[in-house]
Design a protein that fits this description.
Chain lengths: 353, 353
């Protein structure tokens, strides 16, 4: 028996902001399962900022990369049964065969059985998945020690990572100032308990805002954005400030080399530590992190929101929308009408697009 | 009894590279000693790169900052006797009264009694002083863990800090590539055991040099220079590379804001840690460091050289010369003909200017 499946490829290299016409939907035929194989059907697909920067290493015709939340529909592997919910770096495919589910490169086929009751399984693509871990390790490991009373600045704060960073920092007694790009997002940050929330598109001078909202300087800067925003934030850092360089979404669609002030003098006089990271560095501590974040979700101390786009074939729109800041919380694509989770149960609210 | 003393002040704010005419020699009268006071006569004066950047915080008429190696000539304090050699942040003065020798701010009056036999006491201003500690902590703490086999790049490598960094890294099994600005300095780096030494003024393209000399990339970058040199080095860093941001001497005399490539994307993809520091952070571990460096000096594994300028009144020339790269090893100013040390005994060689 063979199975028809769809995949979405990068048909043309992105030049600046990706366009829907840069993608193509293609059919493929999956080979019959052999012993040890698992056949999965994608229920939810994740779109994340890293895809834009990693696409530089792709060739035209390559399947778009990314993680999916899927359902096992056929299994010839003893550890997986039909109906299991699983996470996998399958790329943008609506069905796929996993040849070696235990292969740790880049990541094994992971069962989603750790989501607190009453919360959607789609959290495995958000707060209780890669974005949540990015926030957790990027704050607690890169910026350690995170001390009560410190001032934390986070940008793209209403996104999948930023919202978790802010709430984690609050739960550790920090004063949190978040930046986002719409009034609705700013309102959301206030609901999440951010001490200050600012619409960077309408605020006027960031310099003035920081003087006013961070009068004692900034101890921790969790940077998802980069560019000139960061130049200004850096100049407000305190002695022994720590900068978690998580993303530079402001630069991903740049076509040329971006330049800004040279920071060396500032790093020296303020003794600042600045570190970039990729979250898979902490693979060995992953489930500890999921337990810690899961406990906060269970206690209502870690709220979340999801923005969903309906239809596998609309994944390119979802990616472009996310890069343009259209989402609040995690942006995900619903691929199957029968998919569990992601329906706004639990503490989560949902915005459909 | 009153004592006449000389001091050198910043008479005019520096605009770009300091000029001799920006300084002025002034006389002052020291008050008689009271109980607890110590009168010191400067024997050697240190000129260091940090003075150029710190001068931005000085007013016209302020005494130039800096450390001296001095001799106690009168003491009304039980812990100091006439003839003691002492280090002090006295500023550029040929005689001075220390009112409270134990005051730890910025640093107490420190006896120089820890220099290995057969080596000059002036090492307390170099390898066995602030510059040595800068190299030691800046490498071992900021870049930790320093692993055998790693590739280390250091610039201003023939200077007081760089030469120690290179030898320390060699003693830990690293492969060390040093950059300096004259063929004589390059020759000196080879004598010190650097694996590769390059004259950056005549090398042509740094990009090509790094491709050739660091074919496996760079793990540790000890940066004394900053600017475009750093931009290029950074692009050759390996995964988990560490950058010790010690100085940016290429930028100190800039009159405007210098700009260069934005590094965030690079920091993320290579997971680079970049940290600036001021060496007094490790005040509590100072003497451990001096013991470790002293042991290397004693064993002949830490060589040094000094460049001396004769005459207290020539300190401005010495500072300017050092900023222009005229020194090999530590640049010091001989203030008293009767001064002990600094005369090229031990393993040290000396260049007089």
């Amino acid at each position: 028996m063979t199975t028809k499946s769809s995949k979405i490829v990068m048909a043309r290299r992105f030049d600046g902001m990706p366009q829907v016409s840069d993608f193509a939907l293609q059919e493929e035929t999956l080979a019959p399962l052999e012993d040890g194989d698992v056949l999965c059907e994608t229920v939810w697909l994740s779109v994340d900022p890293y895809m834009r920067s990693y696409s530089r290493n792709m060739k035209e015709g390559d399947v778009m990369m990314g993680q999916t939340l899927s359902k096992v529909v056929e299994s010839r592997h003893p550890n997986y049964v039909v109906g299991d919910l699983v996470l996998y770096y399958s790329g943008w495919r609506d069905q796929y065969v996993v040849k070696n589910p235990d292969d740790p490169r880049p990541w094994p086929l992971q069962k989603v059985n750790y989501i607190p009751e009453g919360h959607p399984s789609t959290l495995s693509l958000g707060v209780l998945g890669m974005p949540g871990a990015t926030a957790y390790f990027g704050l607690n490991e890169i910026c350690k020690p995170v001390k009560s009373g410190e001032t934390v600045v986070v940008n793209a704060a209403a996104g999948a990572v930023g919202a978790v960073v802010g709430q984690l920092a609050k739960s550790q007694g920090c004063r949190v100032v978040g930046f986002a790009g719409t009034d609705e997002k700013v309102e959301y940050l206030r609901e999440l308990g951010f001490d200050e929330a600012v619409n960077y598109k309408t605020m006027g001078s960031l310099e003035d805002v920081l003087c006013s909202l961070c009068p004692n300087g900034i101890d921790i800067y969790f940077d998802n954005v980069g560019g000139s925003f960061s130049d200004t934030v850096m100049s407000h850092m305190n002695q022994f400030g720590r900068v978690s360089v998580c993303g530079c979404i402001s630069q991903y669609n740049n076509t040329g080399q971006s330049i800004g002030p040279r920071l060396q003098g500032l790093l020296i006089s303020k003794q600042i530590r600045m570190e970039g990271f990729l979250v898979h560095r902490w693979k060995d501590q992953w489930m500890e992190c999921m337990e810690a974040l899961g406990a906060l979700v269970r206690e209502g101390k870690m709220k979340y929101r999801e923005t969903t786009v309906d239809g596998f074939e609309r994944a390119p729109e979802a990616l472009i929308g996310m890069l343009q800041g259209e989402n609040i919380g995690k942006m995900i694509v619903k691929c199957q009408s029968g998919g569990s989770g992601g329906d706004g149960d639990g503490d989560g609210e949902q915005c459909k697009q």
